[in-house]
Amino acid sequence: MKRFVFKVILFLILMLAFLTAPVMLAIFNNTIEQVKLPSHVQTLFVGDSHPQCALNDKLFPNSLNICRSAESYVYTYYKLKAILRVNPQIKTIIIGLSYHSVGGKYDYTVKKNNLQFKTMCYRYLPVYDSDLLFYLLRVNPVGVVQNLPAFTKKSTALLSKDILNRLKYRDFPFIGSFYDDTHSNLSDSVITWTISRQYHDEQGQYIGISEMQKQYLFKIIRYLEEKQIALVFVNTPVNEKYLSKVPENNITVYNDIVNRYPNILFLNHTHLTYPDNYWRDGEHLNSLSAALYTQYLYEQLKAEGVVE
């Protein structure tokens, strides 16, 4: 009997989600038109915390860093679709693709009903369309339903600004920015913790590869090819102490992806070196090294004819 009652309640909650979804999507299909980036922006930096910390858009002409920490390629895909729909001036997309990017931990931001999923739901709600919403309902129905109040709160706030004609692109939570920080901590304990967090589960077992990440990475590539927008992948610098601990399987899968697309520019800069105080931690640059790396990348892409 209890099992039957539980199923009935779950069915009613899911029905509520399905009935609420079209209203929310209609609101955001309208408000997303306000994601108009500055007209001079022709290059976008997209991805997680690696390019967010490594690429200073103030030092790269006509660029904008919109990276957000822990952004999976699921959200990157829909984020790009929303932005490119109303920003035809964009010519080049530079996406972070590192060894951890293909790791199973990214499934936690989509398929697990945890704090990470709650944060991502709230952050990327404006780029939801029916495909993404129904995908999330399929892989994480309880998480979606539990976050309905946050959905409603965010949709109301954005709609209010839209009605008052005060909605700007920076109001959308999926729009990130360059992380400007000179802090540095290269301690062994921080690097060990980082490796454990990225590549292992709570029991310390290697978590493997995310097929979801690969699937949506390939969708991004196909989408940008159809839009005829130049695409560059960057594997940003990491400290040698971190690099030596990266699981070999992740490196192999990364290389397989690179070999799969010989006509796409993949830049592997993991071995670039900087003084110890130029590292935010083992996997991130800080502002000091980001200034050098951004200039390095710009000159390389300019030489390749990717940017002007």
How would you describe what is shown here?
This protein has 308 residues and is an alpha/beta fold. 50% of the residues lie in helices and 7% in strands. The chain has one domain: 3-Layer(aba) Sandwich (Rossmann fold). The chain has 12 helices and 5 strands. Strand 1, helix 2 and strand 2 form a beta-alpha-beta unit. The radius of gyration is 20 Å and the shape is globular. Residues 4-8 have low confidence and may be disordered.
Low-confidence stretches: 4-8
Overall pLDDT, averaged? Answer: 88
Architecture, CATH level 2? 3-Layer(aba) Sandwich
Task: State the total count of DSSP E strands.
Answer: 5
List the helices and strands and how they pair.
Layout: H1 2-31, E1 43-46, H2 49-54, E2 63-65, H3 73-85, E3 92-96, H4 115-124, H5 130-139, H6 141-146, H7 148-163, H8 188-199, H9 211-227, E4 230-235, H10 240-243, H11 248-260, E5 265-268, H12 287-304
Summarize, please.
The chain has 308 residues and is of the alpha/beta class. It has twelve helices and five strands.
Kindly list the characteristics that best describe this protein:
50% helix, alpha/beta, 12 helices, 308 residues, globular, Rossmann fold
